[in-house]
Amino acid sequence: MAIVAGALVIGLMVCISADVTARYLFKSPISWVFESTEYGLLYITFLGAAWLLRRDGHVRVDVVLNRLSPQPRLILEIITFLILAGICFMLFWYGTQVTIDNFKRGILSVKYYEVPKFIFLAVIPLGSLLLFIESIKKIINQYRLIKIRK
Amino acid sequence: MEWWLILLLIIGSLVFMMLTGIPVAFAFMLINFVGIYLFMGTAGFSQLILSIFNSLTVFTLAPVPFFVLMGAVIFQSGMAFRVLDILDKWLGRLPGRLSILAVAASVTFSTLTGSTMANTAMLGTLLIPEMSRRGYSKTMSLGPIVGSGGLAMIIPPSALGVILGGLAGISIAKLLIGGILPGLLMAALYISYIIIRCSLQPNLAPAYDVVSTPMSEKVASLLKHALPLVLIIFCVLGTIFIGVATPTEAAALGSFASFILAVLYGKLNFDVIKKSIITCLEVTVMAFMIIAGSMAFSQLIAFSGVTRELATLVAKLNVTPVLIVIGMQLVLLFLGTFMEQVSMMMITLPIYMPVATALGIDPVWFGILMLVSLEIGFTTPPFGLLLFIMKGVAPEGTTMADVYSAATPFILCNILALGIMIALPPIVTFLPSLIR
């Protein structure tokens, strides 16, 4: 998924550069670039989120964590990952409902072109599901660490 | 419930959740879920999803990935190292020469990248061994690098500036251009401090003979290695300034140009591309997840009526707007001692912007002041991020206390710069007023 996100960044870069050049030199802008960029940002973020969680790349305030001794630290981490998993599940659940609702009612995203909005919304539950899976993996890992320490 | 009690509860529970070590983006999400449930019941949850959708499908945020990508390509391909070399050749015999070199290099790198962390880490690794070999004291070796590392956030291209502009509804082009003079002002303050201190206490930074380079070689290296980078700077700043491109387009062009340059220098390979994209994704996804999580948070605060009450209260207060602005910066400085920049912005913006509008404050000026305060937060003890990065690359035996005391004079320089900008707004507003 992160590879897809990376490819999206490069793709957008080329498209936008081409768009500026086209507009400035030939006075003929490529009109779909603008809105594709907007949806691209949403896709990049949600496709990359689970990958970033695996790399421990989401910013967190570790002031308290760093002061705890290993055992309580692991327990606190398990608790926070449980909360995290819960949040991601909620995002997945309600994200799916909103997406299905948009699909059923055939809501279009109207900016320059009419595109069914659910295509773009769908990445939110997808990304959240991956995040949920990743946080469960983290919990299992931490739990194993506790067992090893005992 | 009283509005201030609601505010206190929301902010208090958010800070508490953050302190447990849950990633910041998800701390925001959790507060959103709880808050929305309390205000609107489960029906509000689908609104939350739509708010996430709307928070990221924003064209003005698009420069962020491109600015980071551009900086990463320039650093990973080794093109940035050349700059240091050129500066070294051109700089004459000055008191505290290497410290000044560090500041000058920082300014140059800041125009090529928006990442303070890469900036600090690279300068630290490259310059500190040389400094300690020459007998520089810690104050004069660690200090300038930590102090000027944050310039990347003020001097365009600044990813954080883009985020601030995009979220607060301030013109991003003006915010980026407006950062130029304040950034130079801060660099000038650092350099004056270094020269004065080293003239008074020469033992802090022992002078040494500089191997002089012939003029022809100086010019040749400048043309060969610096000119192409100037091209990138033009792609980004020039196009914004003369009004050819929007910041997003300028950023895309800049990153495209950085790839082309890397090819021309024969420095582009799969490894460079992969590492650059990874850096780009890490920074972008991290920042955008926080934005996704905190947009609904801002709406929650607005919905609870807190913002309106606070804005009326401040408008009714009989103090000059400048005092309120100073107060707001002090709050940011305090938050900066333990919090990360994007989250600080997301907590304060929904409260600050309505107040600033109510007081009729120039948003560009206010935005730059905020950026400077956020930047200072990077270097303030005990938890400023740059301090830890510095500790990471400093020679063995350097304690955290060494880093703290080395950074202090430069933090004071920054606060002085903030004061000058508050007293003399044209420093910030002059250049943006020229944009077409």
Which secondary structure elements does this structure contain, and how are they paired or packed?
The complex is a heterodimer of chains A (150) and B (436).
Chain A: H1 2-26, H2 32-54, H3 70-105, E1 108-110, E2 114-116, H4 118-121, H5 123-149
Antiparallel strand pairs in A: 1-2
Helix pairs in contact in A: 1-2, 2-5, 3-5
Chain B: H1 3-19, H2 24-40, H3 45-56, H4 63-76, H5 79-90, H6 97-110, H7 116-133, H8 138-149, H9 151-154, H10 159-168, H11 172-178, H12 180-200, H13 215-241, H14 247-264, H15 270-303, H16 306-316, H17 321-336, H18 341-359, H19 363-379, H20 385-393, H21 400-423, H22 426-434
Helix pairs in contact in B: 1-2, 2-15, 3-15, 4-10, 4-14, 4-15, 5-6, 5-13, 6-7, 6-8, 6-12, 7-8, 7-20, 8-12, 8-21, 10-18, 11-22, 12-21, 13-14, 15-18, 16-18, 17-18, 17-19, 18-19, 19-21, 20-21
Shape annotation of chain A: elongated
Residue windows where pLDDT falls under 50 for at least 5 positions of chain A: none
> How large is the radius of gyration of chain A?
20 Å
Tell me the number of helical segments of chain A per DSSP (H or I, 4 or more residues long). Answer: 5
Main pleated sheet of chain B: none
Please bin the fraction of helical residues of chain A: over 70%
Radius of gyration of chain B: 22 Å
Pair with the biggest interface:
A-B, 55 and 55 residues
Strand order of the largest sheet of chain A: 1-2
Total E-strand runs of chain B: 0
Return the string of H and E elements of chain B. HHHHHHHHHHHHHHHHHHHHHH
Structural class of chain A: mainly alpha
